[in-house]
Specification:
Helix content: 25-40%
Strand content: 15-25%
CATH superfamily of one domain: NADH-ubiquinone oxidoreductase 51kDa subunit
Strand order of the largest sheet: 1-14-13-17-15-16
Shape: globular
Largest sheet: 6 strands, mixed
């Protein structure tokens, strides 16, 4: 296979623990009730279009995008809206959501529920973008940035490459891996559609070398689709970061504070691409997604196809329940995921995985003073100085943190993973980013 491509700066290699990699996607039964938050994207929440007592069908628009960076929300089940109320989401914030009692299984007219592959490509670029917007698609890898906004190349800029993120570098998670194996053909059609929307003739699929079956399968499929190539990448975290993936595949570097389109690239996750296929070819909005439920103590590590709004409790039960020695339950993977305050929270568009960690794995070690070893700086994929940025955040020197480019931090957690002093560097970096981001927004208002 020759020398495997990768990014140059920093990176770590945590244990992969892909326990559910060989477990086929299993469809979970529709629950008796779902709770659908109106804010499931980066940016503004959607505006509710329903009220208590309304009857809804699967795929019906129930929340309308309320600003430029926002996305539509659709009913993932058919039934009755029992209430619109605030719920505690996975981060502990109160968010408005629709409670839907499930009745029947009625879908909105015009949604194609067949498994027939549709390869039609004769759409206008704007038509594709409009269908993506209408379907409420966001970054399904977890970033949840509205996809239609990403497809709108700013005036004066040109996209040259569509880059497809099939890396799934986060330990434990396997939902993208399974999707490539089971829905590879649909992903190829989705890629062709986005190539048309972006007016590019090259698409590069990056897959880490620990998924040889996915690399082989996607390479075979790509032979039938013009302009699409598959690239095996070295296993190195955080290879799935946009800037790291662009560097690995094109050797281009996105400048500080700039977007990938600055260097002619648009990056999309394979889960997002599959949703694009369903939206354009099947008129199907985002009402379900694939979620990995995993952990060393989990009875049946699994990949579930599940309706949005399903309680995480139901997924954990389907994987064998919460093991006795559980110390922490994380939404996402161990590096970038966040601990859940409780498990009675709904699956949302960005829910890629649920990781159940044993007590001995999840307990934080005692913090000791920084020994200036520079390990955190050596592994930072953005070339930052995490020890300095965390110190500045700790003492509330947020203006200095901004000058030291804290906003370039991608919150990958490599620094904290490698710190021999067990300093919670990522916590401080997130604090710094939050405060600096707030300061920047306030400045822009004036």
């Amino acid at each position: 296979m020759g020398i495997l491509k990768t990014f140059v700066l920093g990176g770590v290699h945590p244990p992969e623990n892909k326990l559910s990699a060989n477990v086929p996607i299993q469809e979970l039964p529709v629950p008796a009730e779902v709770v659908v938050p109106f804010g499931q994207n980066l940016g503004a929440p959607s505006k509710p279009l329903v009220q208590r007592g309304d009857k809804v069908k699967v795929g019906q628009l129930i929340g309308e995008a309320s600003s430029f960076i926002s996305s539509n929300v659709h009913a993932p089940v058919s039934g009755t809206i029992t209430k619109i109320d605030n719920i505690l989401d996975s981060t502990g914030y109160r968010r408005p959501a629709a409670f839907i009692k499930v009745e029947e299984n009625e879908w909105e007219e015009g949604i194609d529920l067949s498994n027939e592959l549709i390869t039609k490509e004769d759409y206008e670029p704007q038509e594709i973008i409009d269908k993506v917007k209408k379907a409420g698609i966001v970054g399904m890898g977890g970033a949840t940035f509205p996809t239609h906004v990403k497809l709108m190349v700013p005036p004066g800029k040109t996209a040259e490459f569509l880059i497809i993120n099939g890396v799934e570098c986060e330990p434990y998670l396997t939902s993208d891996h399974r999707l490539m194996l089971e829905k590879g053909e649909e992903i190829m059609v989705g890629i062709r559609l986005l190539m048309k929307a972006l007016k590019v003739n090259k698409a590069l699929i990056g897959i880490e070398n620990n998924k040889p079956d996915a690399i082989q399968h996607m390479t075979e499929l790509a032979k039938k689709y013009e302009g699409i190539s598959v690239h095996a990448l070295k296993v190195k975290y955080p290879q799935g970061g946009e800037k790291q993936l662009i560097k690995a595949l094109t050797n281009r570097e996105v400048p500080s504070g700039k977007l990938p389109v600055e260097v002619g690239c648009v990056v999309q996750n394979v889960g997002t691409i599959f949703s694009v296929y369903e939206a354009v070819q099947k008129n199907k909005p985002v009402v379900e997604r694939i979620v990995t439920v995993t952990g060393k103590g989990v009875q049946k590590p699994s990949n579930f196809k599940v309706r949005i709004g399903t309680s995480i409790n139901q997924l954990i039960e389907a994987a064998g329940g919460i093991p006795e020695n559980t110390g922490k339950i994380i939404g996402g993977g161990p590096m970038m995921g966040k601990a859940l305050l409780n498990t009675d929270v709904p699956v949302v568009k960005g829910s890629s995985g649920i990781l159940i960690m044993k007590s001995e794995e999840s307990s934080r070690k005692v913090e000791s003073p920084c020994i200036r070893c520079s390990k955190c700086t050596n592994v930072c994929p953005m070339g930052l100085e995490p020890y300095l940025l965390s110190r500045l955040a700790k003492v509330k020197e947020f203006d200095k943190a901004e000058k030291e480019k804290v906003m370039d931090c991608i919150e990958c957690g490599s620094c904290q993973y490698t710190c021999p002093a067990n300093i919670p560097l990522l916590d401080y970096l997130r604090l710094g980013k939050n405060k600096v981001g707030e300061n920047i927004r306030n400045r822009n208002k004036n």
